[in-house]
Amino acid sequence: MIELKGVTVRYPNGVVGLDDVSLTIPDGQFVVVVGLSGAGKSTLIRTINGLVPVTEGSLVVNGVEVAGASNRKLREVRSGIGMIFQSFNLVKRTSVMNNVMIGQMHDIPLWRSFLGAWSAEEKEIAYQSLERVGIVEKAWTRASQLSGGQQQRVAIARALAQDPQVMLADEPVASLDPPTAQMVMKDLQRINRDLSITTLVNLHFLDLARQFGDRVIGMRGGKVVFDGTGVEADDKVFEDIYGRSLTADDVLPGQA
Ligand code: ADP
């Protein structure tokens, strides 16, 4: 479970990233967070992961209080969280397999990862993770030779290989074309349902959120301005989140 109570995050330059946010995300929930650039979506994810310190309030992730936690406690929290980024963050010059192995690295001494001295069990976990995203046949391909959608699938497999309780995805489909974005969102949803991994996905646009959000959280100016189902996220909610009316440009081709 992830529980924020009155969480405010103020960056050292005085900018408020999160403004008195209270949220409870039960285990296994699939949550989509929407909002414009600068709304606080990324700050929310980085705060849950302990990368940005909580200025005020309480944040409990999987039973650990993150606000004011020691580095050792923060490492413990992070080991249970798989991260997925817009830019995939793969090591492009090496194989898909090595990239996925990096997901298990918090358990593996660094020298073994450099030598590629993986145990049979570690390799099995990597293969299983690649199978979950339907890309196991690319295991020995260089990451640089994959399309954007395939790279994001490898990044999802890398997060899975870590055996996380929580997955945090920061605009994971922002660099992908609409059909590929749909496929990657479906992968994330399927994995959430199959493995009950609590999943938070930041998205810029509401239409994917409406489609995939069992729960949609709308943010604006560091505050939660909507918390409901995708179905409840109507055009009025759009105005609350984006500060203007919905236009044709806000709907992906083929979604209208
Ligand atoms: P989003 O992910 O919704 O685009 P962010 O969480 O990145 O929003 O940003 C929320 C606010 O915090 C913005 O005003 C942004 O400029 C500010 N911000 C984000 N990161 C930093 C940082 N490292 N230092 C100072 N301000 C930041």
Automatic annotation (TrEMBL):
PANTHER family: AMINO ACID IMPORT ATP-BINDING PROTEIN, PHOSPHONATES IMPORT ATP-BINDING PROTEIN PHNC. InterPro entries: AAA+_ATPase (IPR003593), ABC_transporter-like_ATP-bd (IPR003439), ABC_transporter-like_CS (IPR017871), ABC_transpr_PhnC (IPR012693), MetN_ABC_transporter-like (IPR050086), P-loop_NTPase (IPR027417). It comes from Demequina capsici. This is Phosphonate ABC transporter ATP-binding protein. The lineage of its organism: Bacteria, Bacillati, Actinomycetota, Actinomycetes, Micrococcales. CDD domains: ABC_PhnC_transporter (cd03256). GO terms for molecular function: ABC-type phosphonate transporter activity; ATP binding; ATP hydrolysis activity. PROSITE patterns: ABC_TRANSPORTER_1 (PS00211), ABC_TRANSPORTER_2 (PS50893). Pfam families: ABC_tran (PF00005). Residues 2-246 form the ABC transporter domain. GO terms for cellular component: membrane. Keywords: ATP-binding, Cell membrane, Membrane, Nucleotide-binding, Translocase, Transport. Signal peptide: none annotated. Gene3D superfamilies: P-loop containing nucleotide triphosphate hydrolases. The keyword Glycoprotein does not apply.
